[in-house]
Amino acid sequence: DESQEDQRAPHRQRPNRAVSLEQLRRLGVVYRRLDADNYETDPCLKEIRRAENYSWMDIVTIHKDKLPNYEEKIKTFYEEHLHLDDEIRYILEGSGYFDVRDKDDKWIRISMEKGDMITLPAGIYHRFTLDENNYVKAMRLFVGEPVWTAYNRPADDFPARKQYMKFLAEEAH
């Protein structure tokens, strides 16, 4: 739902309307399920990294006892923004939500838990929050050197946004 109440709540519509992986794919969002218990030696992850040229990786823990400036970071992650490169996250422990805008500019909440990997395309408006468990450990992947810059909405003049909007228009046909 579009509620501004506690960002960590599930925010399901009533009745709930599930979104399929195909609907996410039409938004450019790629979902994969991997073996998070064996991420260090997982041949599937190794192949994804090779095929997608994900040459840079780190692991971040988002929890009040582990992340410096935790409250400020949580607020920043939840500001609606886009990136000029794809955002790739693989949940190793814990859980949270990625919210993305659909073609009608409505929020879709994507529940993420251990083993879930998501790729958000450059130019898509999105945000992230922990869920009510208040903990996630995630792998961040990049093509080349990491670029952390988030551009808060409105950011419609960036080439990445224009390219994304073109992609959405082509998917509609």
From TrEMBL:
Its EC number is 1.13.11.54. It comes from the Eukaryota. It comes from Urocynchramus pylzowi. It catalyses: 1,2-dihydroxy-5-(methylsulfanyl)pent-1-en-3-one + O2 = 4-methylsulfanyl-2-oxobutanoate + formate + 2 H(+). It is a peripheral membrane protein. HAMAP family: Salvage_MtnD_euk. It is an enzyme of class 1 (oxidoreductase). This is acireductone dioxygenase (Fe(2+)-requiring). One of its GO terms (molecular function) is metal ion binding. It is found in: Cell membrane; Nucleus. Its main location: membrane. Keywords: Amino-acid biosynthesis, Cytoplasm, Dioxygenase, Iron, Metal-binding, Methionine biosynthesis, Nickel, Nucleus, Oxidoreductase. Its cofactor is Fe(2+); Ni(2+). It holds the Pfam family ARD.
